[in-house]
């Protein structure tokens, strides 16, 4: 980043810009449409507020509504965790934060957009991890139900239904938690 602007030395700002570029891609121009800009702003603010008020969420480092080449219309950057061990509560808070954007759109605009598609994918992966990989659901026991190849499921149809229900229940519970949290802190999103 420093070389692109013919600087003699690298500054901390160059590192920040480089990090943003790696995480989100090259900056694109802002949408000319005011409605899109507002939607993205409320979406990203929803993530930020959900994270701020979730006990186990990673600290927010930066929030932007500047579109990026990787397809994101904005993004929230969090301080990376030093550890790679997570509790069920931490994983559930990750789902809460990921749902914050979509729920914020719903609260403020009364409708949702396709902007949350990556967030929904992330929620599903985390919930499936809780259920299938980490043995964190008492009713299913400490058994790994992952099917890495995708062809042969190593469990019965009955167990498959229990897995589906458990994944759905986790996401729905965190949806309700996040909706209440954002409703309670609506003013913070506006700010």
Describe it for me?
- It is a single chain.
- The chain has 191 residues and is mainly alpha-helical.
- The chain has one domain: Peptidase M41 (Methane Monooxygenase Hydroxylase, Chain G, domain 1), CATH 1.20.58.
- Helices cover 54% and strands 5% of the residues.
- The protein has six helices and two strands; from the N terminus they run H-H-E-E-H-H-H-H.
- Strands 1-2 form a two-stranded antiparallel ribbon.
- Helix 4 packs across helix 5.
- It is globular, with a radius of gyration of 19 Å.
- The two termini are 32 Å apart.
Helix content: 40-55%
Report Rg. Answer: 19 Å
Class per helix and strand makeup:
mainly alpha
Mean pLDDT: 88
Strand content: under 5%
Mind describing the biggest β-sheet? Answer: 2 strands, antiparallel
Number of strands: 2
Reported by name, the CATH topology is Methane Monooxygenase Hydroxylase, Chain G, domain 1
| Helix segment tally | 6
What CATH first level would be assigned? Answer: Mainly Alpha
Order of SSEs: HHEEHHHH
How would you sum up this structure in a few lines?
54% of the residues lie in helices and 5% in strands.
Name its key features.
191 residues; mainly alpha; Methane Monooxygenase Hydroxylase, Chain G, domain 1; two-stranded antiparallel ribbon; 5% strand; globular
